[in-house]
Amino acid sequence: MILTGYHTLPQMDCYWSKDEDKEVTLINFQSCVLFFDLLNQKFVQFGIFAHNLSIDEEMVPYFGRHSCKMFIRGKPVRFGFKLWCLTSENGYLFQFSPYGGSSTKRIEGLPLGSEVVFNLLESVENPNLHKVFFDNFFTSYSLMAMLREKGFFATGTVRENRIGNCKLKSVKLLGKECKGTFDFAFEKKNEICAVRWNDNSVVTVLTNVGAINPLVIAKRYNRKEKKTVNVQQPNVIQDYNKNMGGVDLHDNGIANYRIRVKGKKWWWPLFSNAVDSAVVNSWKFYNLVNGEKSSQFDYRSKLVLSLLKSSSKNKNEETINESAVSITNTNLGRPSKNALPTAIRKDDIGHLIIRKNERRRCRNCQSQTIYSCKKCNVFLHPDCFQEFHEK
């Protein structure tokens, strides 16, 4: 499945074809089941290791008929299933949850956006170590106040009717002023700050941790002067722009090499998307741990070859073991090393040094030893172990 993301053949059957002009020699059909809850557990097995987190929606392409299929105007993928996602600023996915529309059980009295935020943040053990960013679908004054009570630091763009007691200059009036003009208000009770800034359009941000100062410089194109000019920008706006795109980065990683195997069942796009998410996560984690900047293409290629070759080895091992039952059950005594089938001795699978209760001659150097190879069932001195399996 992962291979189809970057290695394209005209038909799916070609991947399993035995014809010389179509055969992919490494392919063996396998099936497995991935569950969303299991993936979520694996994604956070090392904890929430990023400081800046972002919450947003991700669309899984689907064009069939299903009650949970959504349509979002302006998205790269307009039709499909919607997933709520919690990611790091660089696109590592920590938690995700599918949205089922009206069929989803809701918490009474809590807006959908607030409910999604609290559900995704359940896996965060130390709220004070992180900053959370989300867009105006989720943000409201009441959400910021509740997150503040729970110890979460949050920032998000907000719609004009959700700023609560924070009184700001209207969008219409601020939009008539020059770029870089801003207004702000601070609500002392819950320590929530609202900032409205005139950019290419007027944007409003609500935060329970951000600050206006220090003001930073942003470059914008001036139509009247016909050149790029510097305008002032509140620090909280810059902080939001820098850290909000994590879900989009993860989604882009999936879209670049999306699995091409198609299925007729409604759940297939969700399953294949889950596999792609796991691969993108492993790629980002690999680069993080090793301090590398390996491209996703190179990483996927290495991953596919490793998995397929491992599968081929396991199948060969099963075949060899079945043919060697009589050998492994026989007391080999002291025959020459050539009496053991070379395929078993050199397959580099499952050869372990174990301690025996008796002492015999080493098959390689003839010195006395109490150690043996678990798979070959021959006595070997530890110093001779590698040499015996390489000859």
From TrEMBL:
Stated name of the protein: PiggyBac transposable element-derived protein 3-like
Domain (PiggyBac transposable element-derived protein): residue spans on this chain: 35-283
Highest taxon of the lineage: Eukaryota
Organism ancestry: Eukaryota, Metazoa, Ecdysozoa, Arthropoda, Hexapoda
Biological source species: Sipha flava (yellow sugarcane aphid)
Pfam families (UniProt xref): DDE_Tnp_1_7
InterPro entries per UniProt: PGBD, PiggyBac_TE-derived
MF (Gene Ontology): sequence-specific DNA binding
